[in-house]
Amino acid sequence: MDSILVRGNGALSGAIPIAGAKNACLTLMPATLLCDEPLTLTNAPRLSDIATMTQLLQSLGAEVASLQNGLVLAMSSHDIANHIADYDIVRKMRASILVLGPMLARDGHAVVSLPGGCAIGARPVDLHLRVLEAMGAVLDLRDGYVHAKAAGGRLKGAVFEFPFVSVGATENALMAATLARGTTVLKNAAREPEIVDLARCLRKMGAEIEGEGTSTLTIQGVDRLHGATHPVVTDRIELGTYMLVPAICGGEVECIGGRLDLVGAFAEKLDAAGVSVTETDRGLKVARKNGRVTAVNVTTEPFPGFPTDLQAQMMALLCTASGVSVLEEKIFENRFMHAPELTRMGARIEVHGGHATVTGVEKLRGARVMATDLRASVSLILAGLAAEGETVVSRVYHLDRGYERVEEKLRACGAQIERIKA
Ligand code: UD1
Q1: Would you say 4 and 418 are in contact if contact means Cβ atoms under 8 Å apart?
Q2: Which residues participate in catalysis according to the annotation?
Q3: Which residues of 143-162 are buried (b: 16+ CB within 10 A; e: fewer)?
């Protein structure tokens, strides 16, 4: 398994291009299963999770061509030749469950293995299943698989209120509703930019959707969808991660393609910690206002709140802030696995259930640490960039799921970082 070696090297400055969003792309790709005409995505990120989704779609009979060095995904799903999403692919990535809604909506049946993914809590899929049941799906959970059939051969519109916000369940239901008979109203729906992006793409494909970006989505089912071309929205988590580079190391970084509306709550916390974020013609420019950053309290929430996917990276910053910060994780029950690793680098962190209390130290020290999940791995790289000495982050396969060319992007700003091939 590869590792990443980082040497703390003082202030970092430069420009970093931000890729298309992994999480948007992972929900836009299964939308190809909804119609027999081509769906082309531009601005796709080059990541191992995208390769896994490609493999999954191909196993179902879709054609997926990666063009222009992976930036363009040309997909076509003339027929769904196989309606079984196999355990061997699904276990690698939780987002695989997103093929369930589209297959069920188009052909009235699907069999999907129960998913795996990051080890950040139980992460059940009960909401995905309940909303599809409300739309007339008959489900049978057998041998680790969901066997789903649409009663009467086609899903029907329904009014469904999510008991709590789920990004993936909203996406599955939204895709399924586009081809259901009648109107679907999804209440307490997720409002993430990735949902807005999916709704816009589906509308280009002929879907009738209102309310994206609000907590109520109304979908009028149509008989068929058609082909479309759609650019994947900017990755707000990659954006937020690179915004933290000058915050934690000093210097000034311009994130090309960055948009403030994608990271509003996060930018507000940076501002409170003493980091300025300004809009430029090309994106967002970030620098510390004065010297050391100051402690802030952070609570993760569904969009437009502070994203859970930036909590680990923000914790790395707060390890070096003056004062005591409290981070509260409200989305996942086990998402502080980076805390013991940061502690190995000299951070002072105490975790109590869903809260972590971080007492900032003047300087972190390089150490050998282990990446435990995708966002945790990049938080350790950020900490390593700000630490004295050498940090080796092992198990970086997690990183490759969500960050493309991370060493190259950081080196362009003056970072000393290299990959050690196993
Ligand atoms: C998506 C993102 C992930 C992000 C998360 C929250 C993708 C591919 N992944 O994951 O990076 O961290 O949103 O912003 O887009 N839950 C249930 N039952 C369900 C579904 C979810 O109990 O059926 C729980 C989860 O365990 C979690 C919470 O609801 O505690 C939110 O999960 P959800 O919004 O569904 O996350 P994902 O869509 O899996």
Answers
A1: yes
A2: 118
A3: eebbbbbbeeebbbbbebeb
Distance from residue 5's CA to the centre of ligand 1 (Å): 31
Band (pLDDT 50/70/90 cuts) for residue 117 is: very low
Between the CA of 236 and the centroid of ligand 1 the distance, in Å, is: 16
Distance in Å, CA 290 to ligand 1 centroid: 37
Residue 57 CB neighbours (<10 A) = 24
Torsion of CA 136, 137, 140, 145, to 10 degrees: -160
Query: Cα 417 vs. chain centroid, distance in angstroms?
Result: 24
| Model pTM score | 0.97
Ligand 1 atom with the shortest distance to the CA of 93:
8
CATH assignment, 3-19+234-420: 3.65.10.10
Residue 118: the pLDDT is: 44
What residues does each domain of the chain span? 3-19+234-420, 22-231
What is the residue type of 123?
Answer: R
**Residue 119 near residue 372, CB atoms below 8 Å:** yes
- Is the distance from the beta carbon of residue 182 to the nearest atom of ligand 1 less than 6 Å? no
Q: What percent helix, strand, coil does the chain show, rounded to 5?
A: 35, 30, 35
Kind of pairing between the strands at 39-42 and 3-7: unpaired
